[in-house]
Design goal:
Strand content: 25-35%
Bound molecules: uridine-diphosphate-N-acetylglucosamine, calcium ion
Radius of gyration: 32 Å
Largest sheet: 11 strands, parallel
CATH architecture of the largest domain: Alpha-Beta Complex
Distance between the termini: 96 Å
């Protein structure tokens, strides 16, 4: 059995935030969620998360997940350090399991690396191994000290290191794999006699070495994976790296992203092949976009499903469904529960909310289609408003197939316009319109001949 202990109790002081560090987001998801997802993909059987600072918020955010939370006591003068944090979870670890130690603030670690770490541990029959990386600049990290034959001896923290040790380029990622029983043994032996008066998990390595256990190191090539978030600058860099991974994966699957650096796509977004994404697109949540679509301008799409061959320009789409071959925008807004059939045109400054539109219908300009069921081949003229709210309650309107709603009309819900029903421009419709009928609901035009002359309005003052 493989068990992860994920450390997430630290203060995160350098974030300068009221939000616990592991809840800060990159590409729309909290840092901790990436680590948990990685564990799931690496087939870890049980996740133990050590919480402390801001624990209530962290537990609340992940309350639906199968996680064992263990609280590290946080008070003035309480024991502190990565070793002490691991101790809080150790009771959940059976002797015969592997323990994988990870950090909640290191979101770039991949499941492939975790799986390799575990295999290396098992195949080499190690009691414990540490994941390391070679960095050009090892500042801030614990250094990996090896003997002449290359075996790992110990890990020295920057603050406890001598000049020779400071020059070492191989660093401790902070991630390890131990045999459960062996880790319990070593944890009992660590103390806080160091420059920071902290219990260091890193001391486990030298303790095991001294006591004749088999200790190893597993170096990764892609050192970005161990990159941790301590500041907002590092948060942005992690976000950049995550975005790059997401965009590259999509491009390799057949999506054209014209400028990946200015395209923000979250991990769960699915995009079909030959779709082209122009700069400025923001695609979020569980959004699915079909094949051969074109997404242009400042378009943001959240939790929506877009069909094939759809063109969207500078538009906001939230929790909606868009059928094949639709044209949307520029500057349209599909609010939640909008459902468009096929080949629909939603044009400039049109807002749709909680409404369905059937195939081939059009709302080309300046309209509000709220709480309505609109059939197929319906034309909604410029400036039509579906008046759905009386200040207290909302009502729906129904427009049947092939109806025509003239420009600048108000459709005051609840109202029904029958098939081929025809609403004259400028009408305020408060009663049903029959099948094939014309409805004109406005005052008749009155022309007063010579009125301007009579009033003297044409004389300059
Ligand atoms: C630690 C390692 C260092 C390694 C580096 C990699 C130790 C002593 N040092 O240093 O060798 O190169 O990580 O990033 O382990 N945490 C708790 N409770 C605590 C203290 C920390 O949960 O009492 C958590 C933090 O939230 C964080 C992680 O442990 O997620 C690492 O703590 P941090 O203080 O950042 O360790 P470093 O000093 O960076
Ligand atoms: Ca750190």
């Amino acid at each position: 059995m493989n068990i992860a202990i994920i450390l997430a109790a630290g203060e995160g002081t350098r974030m300068k935030s009221n939000i616990p560090k592991v809840l800060h987001k990159i590409c729309g998801k909290p840092l901790l969620e990436y680590v948990l997802n990685t564990c799931e993909k690496a087939k870890i059987d049980k996740n133990i998360v050590i919480v402390g600072n801001g624990k209530d918020k962290v537990i609340e955010s992940f309350r639906n997940e199968e996680i064992i939370f263990k609280e590290q006591p946080i008070y003035e003068g309480a024991p502190y350090g990565t070793g002490f944090a691991v101790m809080q979870g150790i009771d959940e670890v059976p002797d015969d399991s592997n323990v994988i130690i990870l950090y909640g603030d290191t979101p770039l670690i991949t499941d492939e690396t975790i799986s390799n770490l575990i295999s290396h541990h098992n195949n080499g029959n190690y009691d414990g191994i540490v994941l390391t990386a070679i960095l050009d600049d090892s500042t801030g990290y614990g250094r990996i000290v090896r003997n002449e034959s290359g075996e790992i001896l110990k890990i020295v923290e920057q603050k406890d290191a001598n000049n020779e040790e400071l020059a070492i380029k191989e660093v401790n990622s902070g991630m390890y794999c131990f045999k459960g029983k062996v880790l319990k043994y070593a944890l009992n032996k660590i103390d806080n006699n160091n420059s920071q008066n902290e219990y260091y998990i890193t001391d486990v390595i030298s303790i095991l070495n001294k006591d004749g256990y088999k200790v190893g190191a597993f170096a990764i090539d892609n050192s970005i994976e161990i990159y941790g978030v301590n500041t907002r600058v590092q948060l942005a860099e992690s976000d950049y790296e995550m975005r790059k991974r997401i965009n590259e994966k999509l491009m390799l699957e057949g999506v054209t992203i014209i400028d990946p650096n200015s395209t923000y796509i979250e991990e769960d977004v699915v995009i079909g092949r030959d779709t082209v994404i122009y700069p400025g697109a923001v695609l979020q949540g569980h959004t699915t976009i079909g094949e051969e679509c074109i997404i242009r301008g400042d378009t943001r799409i959240i939790n929506s499903k877009i069909g094939n061959c759809v063109e969207i320009e500078s538009t906001l789409i939230e929790e909606s469904i868009v059928g094949d071959r639709c044209h949307i925008g520029p500057y349209a807004h599909l609010r939640p529960k909008s459902k468009l059939g096929k080949n629909i045109k939603i044009g400039n400054f049109v807002e749709v909310k909680n409404a369905t539109l059937g195939d081939n219908s059009k709302a080309g300009h300046l309209s509000y289609v709220g709480d309505a069921d609109v059939g197929c081949n319906v034309n909604i003229g410029c400036g039509v408003v579906f008046v759905n709210y009386n200040g207290r309650e909302k009502f729906r309107s129904h427009i049947e197939d092939n109806a025509f709603i003239g420009s600048n009309s108000n459709v005051v819900a609840p109202v029904h316009v029958g098939e081929w029903g025809y609403v004259a421009a400028g009408s305020t419709i408060t009663e049903d319109v029959g099948k094939g009928d014309l409805s004109i609901a406005r005052a008749r035009q009155v022309n007063k001949a010579g009125w301007v002359e009579e009033k003297g309005f044409n004389k300059n003052k």
